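Entry 14: structure prediction run for Peptidase S8/S53 domain-containing protein. Input pasted below.
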Amino acid sequence: MRSPVHGTARLLSGAGLAAALLLPAAPAHALPPSVLPAADGQGQRLPGMPATLDADAGQTACTPASGEKAKKQDWSRQRLDLDRLHRHGTGAGVTVALVDTGVVAGATGLDGRVTAQGAAGVDCVGHGTFLAGLIAGDGGGTPGLAGVAPRARILALRGTDERGRADADLVAEAVRDATRAEAGVIAIAVALPRRDAGLSSAVAEARRAGAVVLAAATPDPPSRGAGDEIPARTYWPAGEPGVLSVADMLPNGARPDGSLRTGGIALAAPGAGVVSGGPRGDGHYLGGGASVATAYAAGAAAVVRAAHPGASPAVVTRRLTATAYPGDVPQLDPYAAVTAVLGDAAGATGGRAGSDPVSLRDTSAADRATGRATLFVLLGSAAVLCVLWAAFAVPRARARGWRAAGAGEPDRG
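Run finished. Output tokens:
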């Protein structure tokens, strides 16, 4: 005869299995962060793309061409589900102004869709060209490495000196140039430690003109030195009102080790072990940092603007944040941003900024199913408790001849 304890154990095992089946599974694309510094998350080892060059290295020492090519799609594009996104939108007709180190117009994957103003047509560092590939590159013969908005146009603007060091005056002038050019999206890939009145004014003017403005939440961390030694602070222009502040993340959603600390982050996007091209040759590099995440978010904004041409900048921003994957910082989901249904039709046609709620697909049926499953687990748990009580109480009651506890016992007083 089986003991009550054995039967109870079987019930507990069954209840545990049922509960486990109801728990959400971890994303299949989560990768150990430890592989990212040396590779792109798929084991592809490529040279790194610097954000700045050593000021003492000489004026002619630019980033050399890469002799390596990625052989498959990296984790970041898989995470953003770009293959599915491109069936719904590619950013055609939208101009993204990129404020960084410049962009080489004839770079692989960008030929014919880049306009560079002044010195921005020269990119010694290579970082701006790398980011442009993430925003609007067509993959250069490797479709799996296309950018988020492969039919958008890039307006290249220089916000740094030739070695990649950011300058507030240069960034402010670049933003003003982007506004005059009527860019639909302005991506500022640099971050400054101090607020600048001229830059604040330029950003406010760009927003009034109808541009979606995004900026890196922090500078890319230095190649030497730990980011946790630098106190948390606000960086600019990411801290300006109405600017979408974007931070970098690993495949598990966490920020990379050594990331500079800040507050007010609105959105996170892939920013480690990301593959893109450069200004010279057709090889590939690995890059990371908040600037990379900003490029991805800017590409998503371009696709949203193309798919919803009547949406105000506030509605575009709202789509990017409200449809993001939940986390400590919302994680960019471009497909959801494009396909989500706006609850207020007036907002989609340029209504008052910030007043347009975003309604996702009707999930009432799924919610009812979840409620039933939860009720099932609760009832099952109650049944298990009853069985445990019975396994404990019945043998004791039988031993007393089914008399109540204390009944018939002699008076020991």
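Notes: The radius of gyration is 28 Å. Will compare against the previous run tomorrow.
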